[in-house]
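Let's practice the habit of predicting before peeking. Look at the sequence and jot down your guess about where helices and strands might fall. Then scroll down.
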Amino acid sequence: MSIVRWEPFGDLVTLREAMDRLFEESFIRPGSRLLSPHGGDLALDMYETDDEIVVTAVLPGVKPEDVDVTITGESLCIKGETQAETMVENANYLRQERRYGAFSRTIALPSPIQPDKAEAKFKDGVLTLSIPKAEEAKPKTIKVKTENK
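Done guessing? Here is the structure:
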């Protein structure tokens, strides 16, 4: 057993560290809290059932024709672009947080799929992709037989 010296101020964040973090979040990565927690431009949810993989992404202000979805091998790519509204002339913006421009997100799919049978639906700004799993990726049930002697 060792003795550890207690330092009451050891866990406090220094003023310099706090200012560095504030500067980084404000200028180097502005709006990073609004983005995906994984650093991509598009936050999404993905889950699987026995038969398919489902991916949903919220795309506010994006028209369905401005979204491009491609599956290559075992990776899914969603790309698109939001168009900026015209700036108001002779106005002093107090806050401007909505993002405009291109976005893209590529993710690896967890199991073999059938890309030719995938479906994409777009409703109320939410893109939902249903990608059927390949037969070899679906779970198989094996019936247990009993032997009578």
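How did you do? The longest strand covers residues 75-82.
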